[in-house]
């Protein structure tokens, strides 16, 4: 926490190069202030409002809201959906990032754009297209009805809508990292005889794991919080097809504001927990955080391509 | 660290989860089993009512047949709920805000077109009406519909395009103006336009509007269903006052059995008994307790519901189908209020 | 950077095949239904539905507010990323944690929370009201909700690139006599631009379709504060699938076009950067 001032104090002539990567003190303070004000006003205050509302009727209301059977059913459903959606999007994201960041091919920009597209599609539309496809009057509706299969207003529909909405999250994160790093090490590994999977797990994955981990965190959080699309395909059956965000809406509509915000703050805690987990993993990996160290002592990642070859 | 067998195991688990996820419970419920499940798809303001009705009916049914009954509930905007049923949400009964919405389900072939004659009183076991909720002491002196268009009075109502309750509010204002001006539609349009000029925010649902008015303290008067206004007084009251105008609209939220679903799931007997229960003295008492006007006057304590002269949708707009086309469809009167240069 | 065709690397067929298959199943097939449904309208009716004055007003509001919000996020988000990567200061971990929260909150809760804060009875709304400023139920309120929603995108796309930057580049610039400002503008900015533009594009795209958080704060008045997704919802509520899909298709085509242009620009700037 004291690195910046102490570093400024011990600048020796030999550290000129390190000095080249910092700004004058006042610039640093100004930028930190801007960032803190921005995040404070736009994020911290609304969050504080959620917690304030959650506890305004006391902790008893808070725990009762979460222990309620309907709330527990909603939490179970949301966890199930997330456990299905995130691995699917992770597998897709790794494949897409590899193809896009490491190869040049016709239609590459188009492919990236199509992967981004679910962001731009309104969640309302995202829910609607699955109704158009699987609803009783949809394209596949009659076929499904004939086999007594339910997609929408049941778990599969919620999973599909959530997968659609969170589609780009994992894929998008590692691409800039991979592009910035270049492919030299991977090429070296292959030239030295590593198989594709060896190269991927020993060279590529360690380099993109934080980008990937961040993508997974985003995907998880978004999957748990999705409201609009799921609302269209869920059917809102209490205790059966209500996810946590839908349950929040129900409580709010029943004028149980404290309970609504109590359940909402669960999602907030999930987000904070994933962040803590990320920091712990980062620490455990004992990869020196390049940011945390003065540049002079920065350690190069231990990549010795030769060591790969058995 | 990355042994292939682990990955294979993970992949297999995943696949199992995905395949297992396809559930086929279309045939749940049913007639003779020891237990049964029915789904009541309803609109927003009936949550508290049906929570009580379901418990009372399940007890009644258990006593009568020995079968234990689970009644599942789904609530949302009336139009949205009707659309879900049309798209395949397996509702045994629907209890919605407007007969127009049930007509749409009937049009899709799920309900007998003559559904409204199947139960007494146009299949509406209870009624309500549009009333005003104002701040304590009624500082703006709002007594009647005409007071809503005073300059500077802020009126809160949900969006008639997305809320069934808001359509009742709108038609109540329309009907009052028609009556004032001897049936002159141009005058009525002017009145409704002036009223909506005073609306600073159109929430998408009735409960959103109540929150805007009560929690955010925006606006001078909230247009709401009587049952909603009284519930808000019970739950959030203190600083509010209920004003019942001398004239308003008769809101008849209808109920019916979804034929296609109950025939498939063999739940017609339960579903029919459930809806008929709403007309029994016990059902009527529950409706009155939740501030719906019961059809059976004896079910409510004397003086619980102030006398209001009520007109019907048929009288002011020639029925829901016509009202929908003239006022709420694209380019209808409601859109014209907001057209540029107006 | 990765300018060559990496023909030597394996796995292209597998990765691309899997990508395209999954993309088709989850995204393209459902979206094709949308186009197919709109096609049933016929061009004239489609045009009429897609270009009504109310629809046009909602496009202006939706795209305008989304663009403004994404621009704010581009500037402030880059600053946040810079501060988080380069500076050590007490409470840095807290700022880092705050960035992700807009993702984690269900959009409806964000809308409720923002409205609670900004309403005339709220923590920010009350002092603003005393200054005679109203934010809720105006386009400014909509833009604020969209800034909140899109906040993490720029920060989180710029952050990893900034962290992985080789220090030698900046050191070399300094040794060669460049001032700090010159280094930032000439060396760092071009390197960070692709990531920043990606973040901008994602924030913008996300903002266009946003519904849950905006409906609470926007006021929803036709022609004035009615966003396109709400208009779509309105048509859905009135059993007008065709009308809803017409608007949906317009939004889809516009945002697809914008995303495509941004992605092409990025590829172009990368090639140009390599050439110089």
List keywords for this structure.
heterotrimer, B: 342 residues, alpha/beta, 4-stranded mixed sheet, 12 strands, globular, disordered N terminus, C: 276 residues, mainly alpha, MetI-like fold, 12 helices, 78% helix
Topology:
The complex is a heterotrimer of chains A (310), B (342) and C (276).
Chain A: H1 3-9, H2 16-19, H3 25-54, H4 59-67, H5 69-102, H6 108-120, H7 123-134, H8 141-146, H9 155-165, H10 167-172, H11 174-181, H12 184-191, H13 196-225, H14 228-234, H15 244-253, H16 257-284, H17 305-308
Chain B: H1 4-20, E1 35-42, H2 47-65, E2 68-74, H3 78-86, E3 93-95, H4 99-107, E4 126-127, E5 130-135, E6 155-156, H5 164-180, H6 185-197, H7 206-214, E7 221-225, H8 226-236, E8 240-243, E9 247-249, E10 255-257, H9 259-265, H10 268-277, H11 281-289, E11 293-294, E12 309-311, H12 313-317, H13 320-328, H14 333-337
Parallel strand pairs in B: 1-2, 1-3, 6-7, 9-12
Antiparallel strand pairs in B: 3-10, 4-11, 5-7, 5-8
Helix pairs in contact in B: 2-11, 3-4, 5-6, 7-8
Chain C: H1 12-39, H2 43-50, H3 53-86, H4 92-104, H5 107-118, H6 125-130, H7 139-163, H8 167-175, H9 180-209, H10 214-218, H11 228-237, H12 241-275
Helix pairs in contact in C: 1-12, 2-12, 3-7, 3-9, 4-7, 5-7, 7-9, 8-9, 9-12, 11-12
Structure description:
- The complex is a heterotrimer of chains A (310), B (342) and C (276).
- Chain A has 17 helices and no strands.
- In chain A, 73% of the residues lie in helices and 0% in strands.
- In chain A, helix 15 (244-253) packs antiparallel against helix 16.
- The radius of gyration of chain A is 24 Å and the shape is globular.
- Chain B has a four-stranded mixed β-sheet.
- Chain C is mainly α and 276 residues long.
- In chain C, helix 3 runs antiparallel to helix 9 and helix 7 crosses helix 9 (180-209).
- The mean pLDDT of chain C is 85.
- Chain B binds chain C through residues 77, 79-80, 82-83, 86, 104, 159, 161-162, 199-204, 208, 215-218, 324, 328-331, 335, 337-340, and chain C through 49, 52-54, 115-116, 119-121, 136-137, 215-216, 219-224, 230, 233-240, 243.
């Amino acid at each position: 926490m004291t690195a910046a001032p102490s570093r400024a104090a011990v600048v020796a002539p030999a550290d000129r190069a390190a000095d080249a990567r910092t700004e004058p003190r006042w610039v640093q303070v100004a930028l930190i202030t801007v960032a803190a004000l921005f995040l404070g006003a736009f994020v911290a205050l609304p969050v504080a409002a959620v917690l304030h509302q959650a506890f305004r009727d006391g902790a008893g209301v808070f725990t009762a809201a979460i222990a309620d059977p309907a709330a527990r059913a909603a939490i179970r459903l949301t966890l199930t959906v997330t456990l299905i959606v995130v691995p699917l999007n992770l597998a897709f994201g790794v494949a897409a990032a590899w193809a896009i960041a490491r190869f040049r091919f016709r239609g590459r920009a188009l492919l990236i754009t199509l992967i981004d597209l679910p962001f731009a599609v309104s969640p309302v539309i995202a829910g609607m297209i699955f109704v158009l496809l699987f609803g009783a009057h949809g394209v596949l509706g009659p076929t499904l009805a004939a086999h007594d299969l339910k997609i929408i207003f049941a778990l599969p529909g919620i999973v599909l809508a959530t997968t659609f909405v969170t589609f780009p999250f994992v894929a998008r994160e590692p691409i800039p990292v991979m592009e910035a790093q270049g492919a030299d090490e991977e090429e070296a590994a292959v030239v030295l005889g590593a198989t594709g999977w060896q190269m991927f797990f020993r060279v590529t994955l360690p380099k993109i794991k934080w980008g990937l981990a961040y993508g997974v965190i985003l995907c998880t959080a978004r999957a748990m919080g999705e409201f609009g699309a799921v609302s269209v395909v869920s059917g809102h059956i209490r205790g059966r097809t209500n996810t946590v965000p839908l349950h929040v809406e129900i409580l709010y509509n029943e004028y149980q504001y404290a309970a609504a915000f109590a359940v909402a703050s669960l999602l907030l805690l999930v987000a904070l927990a994933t962040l803590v987990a990320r920091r712990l993993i980062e620490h455990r990996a004992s990869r020196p955080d390049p940011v945390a160290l003065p540049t002079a002592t920065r350690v190069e990642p231990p990549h010795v391509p030769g060591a790969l070859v058995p | 660290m990355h042994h292939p067998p682990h990955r294979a195991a993970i992949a297999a688990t995943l696949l199992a989860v995905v395949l297992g996820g396809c559930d086929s419970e279309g045939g749940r419920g049913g007639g003779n089993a020891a237990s049964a499940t029915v789904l009541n798809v309803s609109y927003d303001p009936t949550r508290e009512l049906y929570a009580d009705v379901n418990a009372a009916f399940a007890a009644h049914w258990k006593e009568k047949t020995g079968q234990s009954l689970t009644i599942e509930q789904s609530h949302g905007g009336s139009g949205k709920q009707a659309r879900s049923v049309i798209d395949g949400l397996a509702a045994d009964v629907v209890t919605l805000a407007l007969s127009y919405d049930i007509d749409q389900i009937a049009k899709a072939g799920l309900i007998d077109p003559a559904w409204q004659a199947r139960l007494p009183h146009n299949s509406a076991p209870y009624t309500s009406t549009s009333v005003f909720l104002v701040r304590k002491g009624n500082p703006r002196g709002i007594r009647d519909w005409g007071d809503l268009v005073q300059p500077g009075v802020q009126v809160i109502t949900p969006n008639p395009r997305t809320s069934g309750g808001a359509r009742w509010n709108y038609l109540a204002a329309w009907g009052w103006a028609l009556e004032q001006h001897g049936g002159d539609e141009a005058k009525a349009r002017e009145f409704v336009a002036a009223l909506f000029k005073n609306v600073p925010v159109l929430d998408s649902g009735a409960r959103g509007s109540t929150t805007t008015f009560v929690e955010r303290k925006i606006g001078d008067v909230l247009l709401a269903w009587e049952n909603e206004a009284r519930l808000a007084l019970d739950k959030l009251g203190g600083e509010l006052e209920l004003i019942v105008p001398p004239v308003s609209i008769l809101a008849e939220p209808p109920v019916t059995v979804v034929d296609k679903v109950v025939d498939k799931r063999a739940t017609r007997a339960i579903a029919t008994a459930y809806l008929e229960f709403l007309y029994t003295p016990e059902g009527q008492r529950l409706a009155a307790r939740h501030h719906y006007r019961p059809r059976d006057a004896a079910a409510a304590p004397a003086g619980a519901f102030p006398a209001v002269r009520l007109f019907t949708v048929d009288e002011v707009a020639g029925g829901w189908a016509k009202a929908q086309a003239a006022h709420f469809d694209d380019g209808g009167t409601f859109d014209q209020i907001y057209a540029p240069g107006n | 950077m990765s300018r060559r065709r990496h023909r030597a690397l394996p796995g292209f067929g597998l990765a691309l095949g899997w990508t395209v298959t999954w993309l088709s199943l989850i995204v393209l097939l459902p979206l094709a239904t949308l186009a197919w449904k709109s096609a049933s309208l016929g061009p004239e009716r489609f045009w009429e539905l897609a270009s009504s004055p109310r629809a046009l007003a909602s496009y202006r509001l939706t795209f305008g507010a989304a663009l403004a919000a994404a621009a704010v996020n581009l500037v402030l988000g880059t600053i946040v990323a810079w501060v988080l990567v380069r500076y050590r200061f007490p409470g840095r971990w807290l700022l880092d944690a705050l960035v992700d929260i807009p993702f984690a909150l269900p959009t409806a809760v964000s809308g409720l929370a923002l409205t609670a804060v900004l309403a005339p009875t709220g923590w920010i709304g009350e002092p603003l009201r005393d200054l005679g400023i109203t934010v809720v139920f105006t386009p400014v309120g909509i833009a604020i909700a969209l800034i909140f929603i899109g906040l993490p995108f720029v920060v989180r796309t710029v952050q990893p690139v900034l962290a992985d930057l080789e220090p030698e580049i900046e050191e070399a610039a300094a040794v060669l006599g460049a001032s700090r400002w010159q280094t930032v503008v000439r060396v760092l900015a071009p390197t960070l631009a692709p990531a920043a533009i990606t973040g901008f594009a994602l924030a913008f795209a996300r903002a266009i379709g946003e519904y849950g958080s905006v409906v609470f704060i926007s006021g929803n008045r036709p022609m004035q504060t009615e966003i396109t997704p709400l208009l779509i919802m309105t048509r859905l509520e009135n059993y007008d699938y065709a009308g809803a899909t017409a608007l949906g298709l317009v939004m889809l085509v516009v945002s697809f076009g914008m995303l495509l242009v941004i992605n092409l620009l990025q590829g172009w700037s990368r090639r140009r950067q390599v050439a110089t």
